[in-house]
């Protein structure tokens, strides 16, 4: 596609339920990132995939959070047993493989845990 | 730890005036910097970037200045327009497979 595509754009879920958020990066981009943004806050790094290398999971806040990237393209961020503090915008971004390339963001998935 | 931060959390400017948004970074190894604009309800949008071998780069109505001596980055917007109202983030990248580190953001409000 022309840009980074994320789905769903909005998700309301009950506390304790699992959610899956999907990211479709720009075609050809081998680097994929997930960030989280709470209301009125900056971007918090979650996880980073680069080609076939092991992902950098250093930003995942707890073991309830996981992400995978299948076939080097689409990525899914899974949050298990959601808590109210998980409510945020989850932003996906992608870039060309080399360090120092521009990172392009999707519009985000707005998650509300009630 | 290493971090990227902003001097001013909010900035109000008159339409037509120039805006300057500042950012301080602390990781001396950072060699690539980006400014993003985020409008309400949208994802961050790339504005302009600069590599550490440069100290100035110009785009359309925007200029980024990099002062490596004092680890300072600024975004200048010429003839600010109402459509420039948004939150602006600076981000830094250091060598290797490392993710971008973002500052907290500055909200720019343009007064018509």
Plain-language structure description:
The complex is a heterodimer of chains A (114) and B (112). Chain A is 0% helix and 46% strand. Chain A has no helices and ten strands. Chain A has strands at residues 5-7, 10-13, 19-24, 31-37, 44-50, 65-69, 75-79, 88-95, 104-105, 109-113. In chain A, the strands form two sheets. In chain A, strands 2, 4, 5, 8, 9 and 10 form a six-stranded mixed sheet that branches. A four-stranded antiparallel sheet of chain A has the order 1-3-7-6, with no helix packed on it. In chain A, a hairpin with a 6-residue loop joins strand 4 and strand 5 (44-50). Chain A is globular, with a radius of gyration of 13 Å. The N and C termini of chain A lie far apart (33 Å). Chain B is mainly beta. Chain B is 0% helix and 53% strand. In chain B, the strands form two sheets. In chain B, strands 2, 4, 5, 9, 10 and 11 form a six-stranded mixed sheet that branches. In chain B, strand 6 (56-58) and strand 7 form a beta hairpin. Chain B is globular. Chain B starts with a strand and ends with a strand. The chains are: A mainly beta (114), B mainly beta (112).
Primary descriptors:
heterodimer; A: 114 residues; mainly beta; six-stranded mixed β-sheet; four-stranded antiparallel β-sheet; 10 strands; globular; B: 112 residues; five-stranded antiparallel β-sheet; 11 strands
Sequence-ordered SSE layout with sheet pairings:
The complex is a heterodimer of chains A (114) and B (112).
Chain A: E1 5-7, E2 10-13, E3 19-24, E4 31-37, E5 44-50, E6 65-69, E7 75-79, E8 88-95, E9 104-105, E10 109-113
Parallel strand pairs in A: 2-10
Antiparallel strand pairs in A: 1-3, 3-7, 4-5, 4-8, 6-7, 8-9, 8-10
Chain B: E1 4-5, E2 10-14, E3 19-25, E4 32-38, E5 45-51, E6 56-58, E7 62-67, E8 72-77, E9 86-93, E10 101-102, E11 106-111
Parallel strand pairs in B: 2-11
Antiparallel strand pairs in B: 1-3, 3-8, 4-5, 4-9, 6-7, 7-8, 9-10, 9-11
């Amino acid at each position: 596609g022309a840009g980074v595509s994320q789905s769903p754009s909005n998700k309301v879920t009950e506390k304790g339920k699992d959610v899956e958020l999907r990211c479709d990066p720009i075609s050809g981009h081998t680097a994929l990132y997930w960030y989280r943004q709470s209301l009125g806050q900056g971007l918090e790094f979650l996880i980073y995939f680069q080609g076939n290398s092991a992902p950098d999971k250093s930003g995942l806040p707890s073991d309830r959070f996981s992400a995978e990237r299948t076939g080097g393209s689409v990525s899914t961020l899974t949050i298990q047993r959601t808590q109210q503090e998980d409510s945020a915008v989850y932003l996906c971004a992608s870039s060309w493989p080399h360090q120092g390339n521009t990172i392009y963001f999707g519009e985000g998935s707005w998650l509300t845990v009630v | 730890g290493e971090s990227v931060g902003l001097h001013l959390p909010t900035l109000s400017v008159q339409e037509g005036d120039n805006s300057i948004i500042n950012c301080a970074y602390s990781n001396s190894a950072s060699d690539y910097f980006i400014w993003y604009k985020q409008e309400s309800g949208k994802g961050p949008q790339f504005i302009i970037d600069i590599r550490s071998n440069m100290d100035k780069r110009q785009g359309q109505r925007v200029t980024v200045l990099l002062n490596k001596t004092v680890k300072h980055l600024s975004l200048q917007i010429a003839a600010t327009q109402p459509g420039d109202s948004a939150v602006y983030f600076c981000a830094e990248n250091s060598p290797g497979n490392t993710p971008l580190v973002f500052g907290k953001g500055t909200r720019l409000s343009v007064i018509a």
